[in-house]
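Design request, tokens follow.
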């Protein structure tokens, strides 16, 4: 390896260790959060910089776990799963070309998300975000995907790849800068085997033992007379592995296109410009999208709700355990024995079971049970206060967490307000989710614009669920203004949606002037009401309209002859829109081609009208003859 490469590797490794140390306190909090969610709730951050547990101080000490964090987390994840992550691309203008481009872009984003199983990745990202406070998506161009371009399948056309990156893999340059685009550089570190490194980068790297996190059971809970095990996070070594560090540097005066350096162990795997033109105005930016639970103004990584609940959970466990210890003393009892009066070893081992004969020294006082007192009421009051603090801090009320209405609430309006407050608190997390999806959508379109220079074919899903094969290239992707159909996904339950649709139907907002409802509107209403597409067979009007729109795209390449079975009036209407568009205004040859096609439709329409008139006259003549 050259001196230059060795220098780059040394600099990257030294920078990586520096960022590890800067992020260590935050990482310890993440590990503590994960332990509490799993049930290891007697864990704490030790002065040595690790997660440890002191164990029981007395053999009789009650150390049971009453996990309220897990159901709160499950409730928040269930609410976030209702957020619709499907993005829609808005056309730049009302021109037919822009509308078609926006429709194609929307379908491309949807197709890429389905191919990468984005719904499952998003569910996992929500879990990472809720526990640690942050999750990251990486949008890249994978040259191993797509159709094969040679007989052996070694060369492929490539396609977009979406990868979920846990926060443990991301190392910013300055942890105090919250905006991902304002970071001078970002490192993505992941553990791979030496065989995987050779397959991807075609270079031999010596593997070794690398510490990674895993799960194990620990006997840290339990009570008087029994021991319970809970899962916890531990560190284990992975054999024949190496840490691969990808360092992304933003464009500078020295490197106008930015720089990407990939290092594995002591070897330089790659150095070059930032590979993707995925920013605004043709700039090169990071291929990452960040999702947070709650924004942290002083830290690049977000704040988790779990982190806020941990002190309350500790206090709740302490109150419940001290309360049960008090009840153990009442149930088991405490004996008072005069010194030397009885065999204390036998009494300690067996206690005072029914029918036991207690032999004590003559003239001494027999063993007696100390009179038990009642459990102090302060325990119950403190327990109730802590339960209310769970609700206040997490923003999740009893209605959603425990599926029950509070005992002091009987009004339907009050229950609705409680649900609305829950939705309001979690809407901040939902907004961050939408922002990350919007950023990913833009990067997907920009990657296609960069790499899909030659025409290619994509299997996409149509509006009614049918599979379509679309041919496109970079020139067909112009729009990237991404919006969402609704911003009220969490509150938009199925029952509320149906009630709203029924009200709009009563007002007649879905019918035309003649009181009729178009077939496509009826199909769309079935989908909104949650019944799926009941009209499985597409209406003839929809099929003819899509055929006319496809012909509008094909006019640029060749003349098209109308078919006699076409719906001529609908075709003429769609082709006239094409004829008066700016595209035909700039291209006279295209304009004349569309105009000739419209004329042929008009001729066939007139012919059909004449045949229909002859058929009517013939039928009328037959009826008159039969009457005679």
């Amino acid at each position: 390896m050259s001196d230059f490469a060795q220098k780059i590797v040394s600099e990257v490794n030294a920078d990586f260790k520096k960022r590890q140390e800067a992020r260590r306190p935050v990482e310890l909090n993440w590990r503590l959060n994960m332990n509490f969610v799993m049930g290891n709730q007697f864990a704490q951050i030790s002065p040595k910089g690790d997660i440890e547990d002191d164990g029981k101080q007395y053999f009789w000490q009650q150390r049971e776990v009453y996990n309220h964090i897990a159901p709160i987390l499950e409730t928040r994840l269930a609410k976030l799963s209702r957020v619709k992550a499907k993005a829609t691309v808005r056309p730049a203008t009302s021109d037919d070309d822009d509308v078609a481009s926006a429709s194609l872009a929307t379908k491309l984003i949807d197709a890429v998300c389905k191919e990468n199983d984005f719904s499952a990745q998003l569910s996992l990202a929500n879990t990472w975000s809720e526990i640690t406070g942050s999750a990251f998506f990486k949008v890249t161009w994978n040259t191993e995907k797509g159709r094969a371009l040679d007989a052996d399948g070694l060369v492929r056309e490539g396609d977009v790849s979406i990868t979920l990156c846990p926060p443990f893999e991301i190392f910013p340059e300055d942890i105090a800068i919250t905006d991902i685009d304002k970071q001078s550089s970002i490192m993505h570190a992941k553990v791979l085997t030496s065989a995987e490194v050779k397959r991807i980068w075609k270079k031999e790297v010596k593997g070794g033992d690398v510490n990674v996190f895993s799960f194990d059971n620990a006997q840290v809970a339990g009570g008087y007379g029994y021991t319970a095990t809970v899962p916890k996070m531990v560190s284990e070594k992975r054999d024949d592995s190496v840490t691969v560090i990808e360092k992304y540097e933003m464009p500078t005066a020295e490197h106008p296109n930015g720089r990407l350096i990939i290092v594995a162990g002591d070897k330089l795997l790659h150095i070059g410009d930032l590979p993707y033109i995925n920013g605004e105005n043709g700039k090169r930016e990071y291929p990452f999208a960040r999702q947070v639970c709650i924004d942290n103004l002083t830290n690049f990584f977000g704040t988790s709700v779990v982190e806020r609940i941990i002190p309350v959970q500790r206090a709740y466990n302490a109150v419940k355990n001290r309360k049960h210890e008090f009840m153990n003393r009442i149930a088991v009892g405490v004996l008072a024995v005069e010194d030397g009066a009885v065999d204390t070893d036998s009494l300690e081992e067996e206690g005072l079971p029914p029918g036991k004969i207690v032999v004590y020294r003559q003239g001494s006082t027999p063993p007696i049970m100390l009179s038990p007192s009642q459990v102090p009421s302060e325990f119950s009051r403190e327990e109730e206060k802590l339960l209310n603090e769970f609700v206040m801090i997490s923003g999740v009320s009893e209605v959603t967490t425990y599926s029950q209405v509070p005992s002091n609430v009987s009004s339907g309006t009050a229950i609705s307000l409680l649900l609305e407050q829950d939705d309001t608190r979690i809407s901040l997390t939902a907004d961050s989710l939408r922002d990350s999806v919007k950023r990913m959508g833009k990067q997907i379109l920009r990657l296609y614009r960069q790499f899909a220079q030659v025409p290619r074919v994509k299997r996409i899903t149509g509006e009614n669920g049918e599979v379509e094969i679309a041919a496109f290239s970079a020139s067909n992707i112009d729009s990237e203004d991404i919006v969402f159909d609704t911003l009220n996904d969490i509150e938009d339950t199925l029952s509320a949606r149906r009630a709203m649709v029924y009200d709009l139907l009563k007002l007649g907002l879905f019918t035309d002037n003649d009181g009729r409802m178009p077939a496509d509107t009826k199909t769309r209403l079935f989908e909104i009401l949650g019944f799926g597409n009941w009209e499985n067979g597409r209406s003839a009007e929809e099929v003819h309209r899509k055929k006319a729109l496809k012909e509008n795209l094909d006019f640029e390449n060749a003349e098209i002859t109308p078919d006699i079975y076409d719906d001529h009036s609908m075709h003429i209407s769609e082709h006239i829109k094409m004829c008066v568009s700016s595209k035909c205004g700039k291209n006279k040859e295209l304009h004349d081609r569309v105009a000739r096609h419209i004329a042929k439709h008009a001729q066939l329409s007139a012919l059909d009208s004449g045949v229909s008139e002859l058929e009517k006259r013939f039928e009328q003549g037959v009826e008159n003859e039969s009457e005679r």
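Comment from the thread starter after seeing the answer: thanks! The two ends are 107 Å apart (CA to CA).
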